User: Fold these one by one.
Assistant:
Number 1:
Amino acid sequence: QGQLEESGGGLVQAGASLRLSCAASGRTFSTYNMGWFRQVPGKEREFVAAISWPSARTYYIDSVKGRFAISRDNAKNTVYLQMNSLKPEDTAVYYCAAARFWVTTTSGYEHWGQGTQVTVSS
């Protein structure tokens, strides 16, 4: 069946960059839409970005447009989130997820990684 594993989080200063990776252990998700979400304590999980299959269409929430970029390499079964010009309000646990159909809501994603912490200091 395979699984999703995020990596690349860490503690950085405002204005820095990070690249998150989400690797699938198999080819189970090669034809899925892939999304990135984030969550802070006491708040619901928030959609951040998604990339479709097969067209690789991308979609971002307004607060990250121009700063974040989602991409995928199906040959490596990996999806990425390049995060530039990070702000303290980007601090959250970031999750990758897979959906059989194109959706931008948490409930639409069927498979999830364990999450990786991103902390941006001011």
Note: The two ends are 41 Å apart (CA to CA).
Number 2:
Amino acid sequence: QVQLVESGGGLVQPGGSLRLSCAASGRIFGINAMGWYRQAPEKQRELVARVTSGETTNYADSVKGRFTISRDNAKNTVYLQMNSLKPEDTAVYYCNAIVQTSSLPNWYNYWGQGTQVTVSS
């Protein structure tokens, strides 16, 4: 099995910054895309940012220019640097990874447990 463990959430004032981390461990043969999603109360889960194994990134329009996603392939870890945070960024943030668990060409979707980010004065 594969586990994704997130860290770095918390309470921050508007305009502040936070850095989320997500480390993947377990039966990992390879990792394709890694990303961050978020879900605010009474809203659907949405993509925040995603980075492929080839380092191609894409972002939700609402976070472009403020958030930066990166990954360390040697550590199977993805990061989300969040700057200029706004109250509307408040949500539970979930890490996601598309993982190959053996030499067979099968890829599986894994999720972290979520970390709360609250932006409030």
Note: The chain has a mean pLDDT of 96.
Number 3:
Amino acid sequence: QVRLVESGGGLVQAGGSLRLSCAASGSIFSITSMGWYRQAPGKQRELVATITRYGNTDYADSVKGRFTIARNNAENTVYLQMNSLKPDDTAVYYCNAETSPVARYWGQGTQVTVSS
């Protein structure tokens, strides 16, 4: 079992920055990748960024060049540095973990609101 707890969301003005954190606990040795997803009002949940246990990253086209995903293995934590934020980035951001054997875990989400 893996537990994920997000933090760092909040209100920010367009052009500003936020840093989200996701702390993993439990069977963390089984995690193969972690990532961030978001769901805006009236929209489907979408992938924002992922990072594997080896450090390989992938980003949605909408956030490339603005967001950076990183990890701190010692603290079992993944981060999402969000720069040049836009109102369209407003959403609930969810941390995700994939494990082997195959399973998926989700955090409870943290609200990010970007004002214009």
Note: The chain is about 0% helix and 60% strand.
Number 4:
Amino acid sequence: QVQLVESGGGLVQAGGSLRLSCVASGRIASIITMGWYRQAPGKERELVARHTDGDITNYGHSVKDRFAISRDTAKNTVYLQMNSLRPEDTAVYLCYAVVASNYGGAYNNYWGQGTQVTVSS
């Protein structure tokens, strides 16, 4: 019903930067939140950053001063600018969105397939 497609992952050296994008498509009446989680092998999935209507942003503690989330609501798109990358940032980065497919209907969580970010040092 709703699809999230990420792009922009890849290989980067420590200290470098990457910019991730995620586009939501399908049956969308409104999106209240878009954001990013990440999951490394053997670790729990953790919040990276999220943006909610009203220009509210939240960041995970380890990325707060290095990453920046932005959102283009008209294009159903969210971005993640990642700077000063560290090897411990290596993970699959997953886009998520909280979406209502009908006006007045319930909001549901949707997830992208993920994009790999690998930071070498």
Note: The chain has a mean pLDDT of 96.
